[in-house]
């Protein structure tokens, strides 16, 4: 499963901002939080890095007995336009936290020169908890680790599903619906600052394709505290919104 990073341009220097996922050849799905002034400030969203793994290298390589083995290079594309949900932040802090980024190129998933592929949207009438059963979804990103620094390496973690009542108790009026309550049952298993927009994904019981069930929105700080789950946007509830707002 391939994820992307967003970069912003400040003083002509791109810097890491958020995470997200490719959903088709023209669009990336992320959190509206990533595109708001609380993250961008006076900067502007300028480029997207697709298919990256190690932010510190131009190309990701692993040393083997036969010499270095390198992955296909990541690609950098521009942004044509962005569109955040119009109700973002209106019903509560980070409510309706979802946004689309339209790329200024059309991606070719058959191109052998890059390792990128889209994630699937949940089908209509998708029931997340019934689909998950006893399995746990996976979140990935480059956010803060237990050492208090952002990771250069794309990390992933299996995070147990929590009861919605735990999020209602913890976040009160900011857990407003169309959200998923994830984590909090084990110490240290969580997304954190810098992971906003990161996809929460699951494959079916028999394996791929991967479905993006959630988008990392907000959570406790410090992160990974037992008894304090994080909140993800429930992508299935926004399927119609996504389809309505993407263009050919």
From TrEMBL:
UniProt xrefs under CDD domains: Tryp_SPc (cd00190)
Biological processes per GO annotation: proteolysis
Domain of life: Eukaryota
UniProt keyword terms in alphabetical order: Disulfide bond, Glycoprotein, Signal
The Peptidase S1 domain, residue ranges: 1-247
Claim: Disulfide bond is one of the keywords in the record: yes
MF (Gene Ontology): serine-type endopeptidase activity
Record Gene3D superfamilies: Trypsin-like serine proteases (2.40.10.10)
Transmembrane segments: none
InterPro entries: Peptidase_S1_PA, Peptidase_S1_PA_chymotrypsin, Peptidase_S1A, Ser/Thr_Proteases_Immune/Dev, Trypsin_dom
Pfam families on file: Trypsin
Family membership noted in the UniProt record: Belongs to the peptidase S1 family. CLIP subfamily.
Protein name: Azurocidin
Source organism of this protein record: Armadillidium nasatum
């Amino acid at each position: 499963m391939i994820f992307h990073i967003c970069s912003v341009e400040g003083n002509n220097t791109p810097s890491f901002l958020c995470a997200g996922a490719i959903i088709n050849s023209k669009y990336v799905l992320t959190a509206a939080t990533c595109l708001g002034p609380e993250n961008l400030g006076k900067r502007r969203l300028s480029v997207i890095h697709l298919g990256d793994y190690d932010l510190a290298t131009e190309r990701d390589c692993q040393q083997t007995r036969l010499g270095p083995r390198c992955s296909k290079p990541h690609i950098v594309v521009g942004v044509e336009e962005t569109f955040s949900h119009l109700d973002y932040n209106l019903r509560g802090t980070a409510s309706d936290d979802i946004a689309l980024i339209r790329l200024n190129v059309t991606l070719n998933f058959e191109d052998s020169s890059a390792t990128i592929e889209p994630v699937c949207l949940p089908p209509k009438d998708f029931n997340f908890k019934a689909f998950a059963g006893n399995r746990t979804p996976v979140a990935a990103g480059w956010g803060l680790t237990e050492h208090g620094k952002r990771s250069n390496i794309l990390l992933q973690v299996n995070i147990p599903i929590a009861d919605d009542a735990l999020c209602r108790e913890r976040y009160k009026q900011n857990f407003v619906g169309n959200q998923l309550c994830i984590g909090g049952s084990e110490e240290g298993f969580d997304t954190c600052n810098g992971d906003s927009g990161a996809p929460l994904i699951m494959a079916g019981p028999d394996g791929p394709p991967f479905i993006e069930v959630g988008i990392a929105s907000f959570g406790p700080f410090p992160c990974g505290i037992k008894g304090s789950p994080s909140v993800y946007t429930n992508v299935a509830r926004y399927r119609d919104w996504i389809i309505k707002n993407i263009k050919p």
